[in-house]
Structures are given as C-alpha cells and as structure tokens.
C-alpha cells in the first residue's frame, strides 16, 4: 500500500512533540510522486525528500498524485486534467502584460503607491497567483505554504520561472517557505514585514459559482483553512502596516471583528486590518 493522507496543517517544521490539533484531514486519497521519464532522479529526490512525498512507480487507478509531464509538475487524477502552478504562460502572462499594473485591486489593497513597494508575506500561498502579481509589481514576496502538494507545485513553477527571460527577475523576488504560516509568523519579530496577505480556502457552501473540476480537486487535496482566525491574529501581531484578507465580495468576515477598511470589487473584497500593538510597546 502506498496511499497517504496529508493534513492541510502538516509541515516539516511541526515538531513531533507538538500536540496542537491539526485543523482538518483531507478527504481525498493522495498517493505520492510518480516517477516519469520527464523527471531526473535528482529532481525526484529533491521533491520526495523536501516535501515528504512517497515515490510511485506506476500511476494509481484512483485518487490523486503528482507527476511531471513535458517538464511541468501537476496534480493528476483519472477524472480531470492536471492542476499546475505556472508563472510563465497562460493566465500569468496575460496578467503580467494586461493586468492593470499598480491600479489593479490587489495592488491597492496591499498599499502600493508611487515608488513604495511593501514587503509582503503571502501566508496562504496556494498556487501563487496573487503572489506573482505582487512580485511583478516590484514587491519582495515570501510565499508560505503548509500543504506539501501545493508547496511542491510552487517549487516547480518558481524553478521554471527563474529560467525564463520574461519572468526570471520577478521570480527572484519570490521566496518559498514550506511551513505552517501561523507557526512561522510567530517566530518573526513584530513589524518585520510590511504586509501579511491571506486568501484562505473554506468549505464550499453551495452559494458560490462552481469552480472548474481541476480547482475543486486542488481544494479537496490541499484542504480547507479552518484555523484562519488564528492565522489572522498572528498576522496582525507581526505585520508593520496592514493585514489583507481576500474574500468573495459577499462572503462573511473572517472573524467577528470588523476590519479597519475594505476595498470591494465585482467579485472579490479585500478586508484591511490594522496591526495589533506589540506586547513590548
């Protein structure tokens, strides 16, 4: 048997002595990393060891697994196309060339003005799409991701972006950290980062528009951020300027506390929270 189930909260930096309950187990069966002719043994070892992923010799009949196809790592299943992270082509290229620059909503939300380029921690990195936009606008962005599956996809996407002439400078401003964001932020000094950006995933309530099968599968495998309230609290203790929470336009607040401000768009809303005073202040 080679099946494994990864909790969303699992990370290499969580001690075996840490008894803090994990927020939720994934409901999908994730098998591991498939060895294909598209990947070198060294690369396979890097991902297997770095993210604690078991290696597979043959594709499973059901469930989910990671595999390289034509040099791109993707989350695969017999029932849908591969889920990949990509900063070079497709939607990333379109946003890079036609996304609206500093006038786009995410840029205003993080406080990008004139020559000011805040240092950002994207604490729920996912597939890195918003992080890439912020980096393309000149920000230094740390992407923190605790899911080994999502982190592996980001690792692969960043490696490809660093090799492409059109994106290598942007990718150089992006640093990936494989860790539980709340734990990692708690180790950072207060005010050491300008902005903490949160885009937590929640269980589907049936009220939002149906996502593509591929993205539904990604959420099933990666899991929901049911501990996002704790993450917001820690983020406000570390951020020097603001914490930004991305939500559906009509979505509920992340916690019961009202944000200091909001930026509302057609389909999304950014809730802006002020930093909390330092305990040592």
From TrEMBL:
The keyword Cytoplasm applies. Keywords: Cytoplasm, Methyltransferase, rRNA processing, S-adenosyl-L-methionine, Transferase. Gene3D superfamilies: Vaccinia Virus protein VP39 (3.40.50.150). InterPro entries: 16SrRNA_methylTrfase_J, SAM-dependent_MTases_sf. Its EC number is 2.1.1.242. It catalyses: guanosine(1516) in 16S rRNA + S-adenosyl-L-methionine = N(2)-methylguanosine(1516) in 16S rRNA + S-adenosyl-L-homocysteine + H(+). It holds the Pfam family SAM_MT. Its main location: cytoplasm. The keyword Oxidoreductase does not apply. One of its GO terms (cellular component) is cytoplasm. It is found in: Cytoplasm. GO terms for molecular function: rRNA (guanine-N2-)-methyltransferase activity. S-adenosyl-L-methionine binds at residues 129-130, 145-146, 199. Specifically methylates the guanosine in position 1516 of 16S rRNA. Belongs to the methyltransferase superfamily. RsmJ family. This is Ribosomal RNA small subunit methyltransferase J. It comes from Laribacter hongkongensis.
């Amino acid at each position: 048997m080679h099946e494994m189930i990864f909790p969303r909260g699992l990370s290499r930096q969580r001690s075996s002595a840490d008894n803090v309950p994990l927020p939720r187990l994934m409901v999908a069966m994730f098998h591991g990393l498939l060895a294909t002719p598209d990947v070198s043994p060294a690369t396979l070892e890097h991902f297997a060891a770095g993210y604690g992923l078991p290696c597979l010799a043959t594709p499973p009949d059901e469930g989910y697994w990671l595999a390289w196809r034509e040099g791109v790592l993707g989350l695969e299943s017999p029932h849908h196309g591969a889920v990949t992270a990509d900063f070079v082509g497709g939607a990333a290229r379109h946003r890079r060339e036609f996304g609206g620059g500093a006038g786009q909503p995410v840029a205003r939300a993080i406080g990008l003005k004139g020559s000011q380029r805040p240092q950002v921690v994207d604490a729920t990195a996912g597939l890195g799409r918003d992080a890439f936009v912020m980096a393309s606008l000149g920000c230094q962005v740390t992407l923190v991701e605790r899911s080994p599956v999502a982190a592996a996809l980001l690792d692969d996407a960043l490696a490809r972006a660093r090799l492409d002439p059109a994106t290598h400078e942007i990718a150089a401003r992006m640093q990936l950290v494989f860790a539980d964001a709340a734990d990692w932020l708690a180790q950072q000094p207060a005010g050491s980062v300008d902005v903490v950006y949160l885009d937590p995933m929640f269980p589907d309530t049936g009220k939002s528009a149906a996502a593509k099968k591929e993205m539904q599968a990604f959420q099933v495998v990666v899991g929901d951020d049911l501990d996002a309230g704790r993450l917001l609290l820690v983020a406000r203790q570390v951020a020097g300027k603001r914490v930004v929470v991305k939500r559906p336009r009509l979505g509920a607040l992340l916690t019961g506390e009202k944000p200091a401000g909001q930026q509302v768009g057609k389909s999304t809303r950014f809730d802006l929270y002020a930093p909390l005073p330092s305990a040592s202040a």
